[in-house]
Structures are given as structure tokens and as C-alpha cells.
Design goal:
This protein is α/β, with parallel strands linked by helices and 403 residues long. The protein has 2 domains: 180 residues, 3-Layer(aba) Sandwich (Rossmann fold); 198 residues, CoaB-like (Rossmann fold, 3-Layer(aba) Sandwich). The strands form 6 sheets. Strands 12-11-8-13-16-17-19-20 form an 8-stranded mixed sheet, sandwiched between helices. Strands 2-1-3-4-5 form a 5-stranded parallel sheet, sandwiched between helices. It has a two-stranded antiparallel ribbon with strand order 6-7. Strand 16, helix 13 and strand 17 form a beta-alpha-beta unit. It is globular. The chain starts with 5 loop residues before the first strand and ends with a helix.
Length: 403
């Protein structure tokens, strides 16, 4: 996977910079072309000359050119590098650099290049234990994960301070393998393809303050949108009411109700090569929505709601596919396989992804999922517990073959 790949390596100022010398050697030995970018702090630990020798490339340490360089070229060097790379790794990633990436600061060549980046971004945090476990750092890492960036967690052990805990940069072989694994999961086989993904729940209003909803977090759909974008697809994400950040290079449309979801899908699906319907769209909605908050009845009187069926978006898409690859999800709590197969047939899907919230590792809001993929041809593939990004990779592998 590394042969002829263009790898950007952003090195920031931590004691484990010395490990990156071996990482560069491993990447080069595997046939990769490596461009090293260093923050001023990183150069205090290992000189740029060392990385230039190992990478056989000039090391970029500043946004500002030397007098002998062509100013017009150097002034956009961070953009040129961002367009050049197939993947970018930031390692060791300090707490300061992680904060910059999370909040869009761009005051050095590493952070500026990341803002212009179009390829997958990998981040390997390394710092003292209390800095790593600090709420601010953990929140920044959460934000970066939601945007679809890949985090290689630090390992536990004795740190430069003498303290023991998580914060050590993994060994060079692990770092290099991490780069290779992400490249393997993000081939550009969907470049030029338009993919529509739906995600999250819908909220069906009862009155101005209450609604009928479900427990969907939207994480699975957002992972699919992120993985598709990293494979080069032009991705439109139609999201119900969720609290997730938008993945990098994904066009997002927010909706609230099943009716709004239906209208948005109807508008955009006809332009797409594939539609992946992972949203948990409500099956029923109140026939009447009260104009004002419904007050609690006297003497404990109950409240009756009359519900009507919502539009069957998936069935409508299946009836007018016109060559579009159509994928549905089936969340079941009984007769799982039977119900999923029935959905596959009745909605005219290319394949359906079955999961149950009762299975360990597949609960609402979880970062992992356990799914079974059932194809139109009858094949049933049960996957082990995987991260939702890896489940998305499996789904898109099958979509890519159908396309």
C-alpha cells in the first residue's frame, strides 16, 4: 500500500521526535515518497538536515521563504503540499498542535497545510500524561474524530517527566503500520461518484416543545459519509437532528422531520450514483401538531395522540432506481434475519445492513457496530465487532464493486 504513495509528515515539538527518524526510514523503505514539515519547536529536538537526509527531500520549516527563493511559489507552498499528498500524518502531535487543528489556527507550516488538506489526516498524540488526559485535550480529540480524522492513541509507559501513564508515541513500526492501514481503507475508487447518505433520527412534533423521536445518534451515517469522502466521492449528507460535527469535504443538509427528510432525499437522490439510507426515519407522525404547548390534564388525565404513517422513502427510491446503487439499514430486535431479508426484497435494495441494539458493541451512540450484510443475491455476511468507520469501509467496498 505504501509503494509510490505521497506522504506528508508533520512533525511537532515533543521529546519523541527522535522516533520519527525511524518512521521516515520505514516509509521510504516501503517505497513511499515522504515530505517532512516541521514546526519551529520540532527543530529544537532534531535538525531539519536529519530528516532531509532520510527523506531525500527538502524539509519545510517555515511559511516564509528565504530571500533566494521565488516568493510567489513559496507563499503558497502549504497549499501545494496539501494538494500533493495522498495522506498526512502529524506525529508526535503535541497538545498545542492538536488544539490548533481543532480550532482552525494556522500559524506555522504544519497547521496551515492541514487547513488546506484534501487527503486523510492522521494524528498521533504524544505528551505528558496530565496534558493528554486534560479535559481540553480530550475535547479537542473528540472534535477531530467527529470531523473524520484518524487518531492513533498513545501508549502507556514511563514518560520524559518520570510520570507513568498514557502519552508515549507508539513505536515506529506501529506508526508506519497505522499509515498503511488507513491508506488501505481509503483507496480513491469512488472519485467522480456522487453518493447520498442519510443519518440520524427524525423528530416528529407533538407541540412546540415535544416530539416523537428515537435514539439514533447518527454516528454510523456520519462514518459512511466520512469514509466515502476520503475515497474521493462527492458526498451529500442529509442529517436529522444530531450533535455531530460535519466530516471533512462533505456537503451537509440538516432536516428535522420525516417529511423534510423525504423532500431532501427526493431532491438529491436522482443526481447520485449510490444512495445509502442509514437514517432512522420515523414510521409514524402525529396527524395534528398543537400550536401551543399541551398542558397536563387535571386529575392525572392522559393524552391520546392520533398517528399517521410517514412516507416510505426507501421503498420509493427502490421503485425508481434507474441504475442507482441502493443500500438500506434494518435495525431489528426480533426475527432479525427474516425481517431484514423481507426489507431487502420489498424495497428493491442492492443490499441491506442488519444490526440490533441488543448486541454488545452495537448500542445506540456506540463508536462500534456489529452488522450482517445481506445482498440481493442471497449472500449473508456477518461481520465482527468493528469501529463504525471500519463498518463504513466494508459497506463502501461493496458499493464500489456494484458501481
Amino acid at each position: 500500500m505504501l509503494k509510490n504513495k505521497k506522504i506528508l509528515l508533520g512533525i511537532t515539538g515533543g521529546i519523541s521526535v527522535y522516533k520519527m527518524c525511524t518512521v521516515v526510514r520505514l516509509l521510504k523503505k516501503a517505497g513511499a515518497d515522504v515530505r517532512v514539515l516541521m514546526t519551529p519547536a520540532a527543530t529544537q529536538f532534531v535538525t531539519p538536515l536529519t530528516f532531509s537526509t532520510l527523506s531525500q527531500r527538502e524539509v519545510v520549516t517555515s511559511l516564509w521563504p528565504e530571500a533566494k527563493e521565488a516568493t510567489t511559489r513559496a507563499s503558497v507552498e502549504h497549499v501545494n503540499l496539501a494538494l500533493w499528498g495522498d495522506i498526512m500524518l502529524v506525529a508526535p502531535a503535541t497538545a498545542n498542535t492538536i488544539a490548533k487543528i481543532a480550532h482552525g489556527a494556522a500559524d506555522d507550516v504544519v497547521s496551515s497545510t492541514i487547513l488546506a488538506l484534501r487527503c486523510p489526516l492522521l494524528i498521533a498524540p504524544a505528551m505528558d500524561v496530565d496534558m493528554y488526559l486534560n479535559d481540553a485535550t480530550q475535547e479537542n480529540l473528540r472534535v477531530l474524530r467527529e470531523r473524520g480524522h484518524h487518531i492513533l492513541p498513545p501508549v502507556e509507559g514511563e514518560l520524559a517527566s518520570g510520570l507513568v501513564g498514557p502519552g508515549r508515541l507508539p513505536e515506529p513500526e506501529v506508526v508506519a503500520a497505522f499509515v498503511e492501514s488507513i491508506l488501505e481503507k481509503t483507496p480513491l475508487d469512488l472519485r467522480g461518484k456522487k453518493i447520498l447518505v442519510t443519518a440520524g433520527p427524525t423528530h416528529e412534533p407533538i407541540d412546540p416543545v415535544r416530539f416523537i423521536g428515537n435514539r439514533s445518534s447518527g454516528k454510523m451515517g456520519f462514518a459512511i459519509a466520512n469514509a466515502a469522502a476520503q475515497r474521493g466521492a462527492d458526498v451529500t449528507l442529509i442529517a436529522g437532528p444530531v450533535t455531530l460535527g460535519t466530516p471533512h469535504h462533505v456537503s451537509r443538509i440538516d432536516v428535522e422531520t420525516a417529511e423534510q427528510m423525504h423532500a431532501a432525499v427526493k431532491q438529491h437522490a436522482k443526481k447520485c450514483d449510490a444512495v445509502i439510507m442509514s437514517a432512522a426515519v420515523a414510521d409514524y407522525t402525529p396527524k395534528k401538531t398543537a400550536a401551543n404547548k399541551i398542558k397536563k390534564g387535571a386529575n392525572g388525565a392522559g393524552l391520546s395522540l392520533e398517528l399517521g404513517s410517514t412516507s416510505d422513502i426507501l421503498k420509493e427510491l427502490g421503485a425508481h432506481k434507474n441504475g442507482t446503487v441502493l443500500v438500506g439499514f434494518a435495525l431489528e430486535t426480533q426475527d432479525e434475519l427474516k425481517n431484514a431479508k423481507a426489507k431487502l426484497q420489498s424495497k428493491n435494495l442492492d443490499f441491506v445492513v442488519l444490526n440490533s441494539p441488543r448486541v454488545e458493541g452495537a448500542a445506540f451512540g456506540s463508536d462500534t457496530n456489529v452488522v450482517t450484510i445481506i445482498s440481493k443475491g442471497g449472500a449473508v455476511e456477518k461481520l465482527p465487532r468493528l469501529s463504525k468507520f471500519d463498518v463504513a469501509v466494508e459497506i463502501l467496498n461493496r458499493v464500489a464493486k456494484l458501481l
